[in-house]
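Re: [ENG-882] Designed sequences occasionally contain unexpected residues at chain ends

Forwarding the minimal case from QA. Structure tokens:
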């Protein structure tokens, strides 16, 4: 059985993402309430619920088609900064995704493109206590697996682990971007909700790969 990822995986990732966001909606709200306006979980849940509905009715021939659908839907349904940031990430990922199947290098390409979109939209850097702190190490971890000849699923697993570590590492940081930056030193001790949701979504990608692999 091929270890390459295909459009079935991409669709399964959307389904797993909607499920994990729904499950963690209140936890994300609580994280955001501590340092922001408390709407991150609600907004993201609404966005992925809309994505799931559109996906069920859409014909998606390629992985890029799936990501483009996610991007456009999140941009139109998710308020605050999350909509444009996630939307741009998925839009860049759509452009970077191979037409048919994805190997480890393809996983790295997709994640690196997503990081580029987030940075371009949000102007954040590593250790600004944002989504970048989850996505950037995830992309690096995937590239390391690809360079060493690992599989696509191994690349995703490494990315998800790095994202979880990166999200946890935002807690001692002073936020330098986003609404949390208004708090200055008071933002320390709080995990960035965007980094946490990013880690959840990347873990969903791993689960989708395992499910689609059978």
């Amino acid at each position: 059985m091929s270890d390459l990822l295909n459009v079935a995986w991409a669709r399964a990732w959307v389904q797993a993402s909607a499920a994990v966001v729904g499950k963690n909606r209140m936890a994300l709200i609580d994280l955001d309430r501590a340092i922001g306006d408390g709407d991150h979980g609600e907004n993201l849940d609404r966005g992925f619920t809309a994505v799931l509905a559109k996906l069920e009715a859409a014909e998606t021939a390629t992985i890029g088609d799936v990501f483009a659908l996610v991007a456009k839907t999140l941009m139109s349904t998710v308020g605050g900064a999350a909509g444009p940031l996630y939307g741009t990430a998925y839009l860049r990922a759509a452009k970077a995704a191979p037409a048919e199947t994805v190997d480890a290098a393809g996983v790295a390409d997709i994640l690196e493109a997503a990081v580029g979109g987030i940075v371009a939209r949000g102007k954040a850097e590593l250790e600004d206590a944002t989504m970048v702190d989850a996505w950037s190490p995830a992309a690096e971890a995937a590239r390391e697996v690809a360079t060493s000849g690992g599989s696509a699923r191994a690349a995703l697993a490494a990315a998800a682990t790095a994202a979880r570590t990166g999200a946890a590492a935002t807690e001692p940081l002073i936020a330098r971007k986003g609404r949390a930056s208004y708090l200055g030193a008071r933002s320390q001790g709080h995990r960035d909700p965007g980094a946490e949701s990013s880690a959840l979504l990347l873990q969903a990608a791993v689960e989708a790969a395992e499910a689609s692999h059978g």
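QA comment: On inspection the terminal residues look reasonable. The chain has a mean pLDDT of 93. Proposing we downgrade this to a documentation issue.
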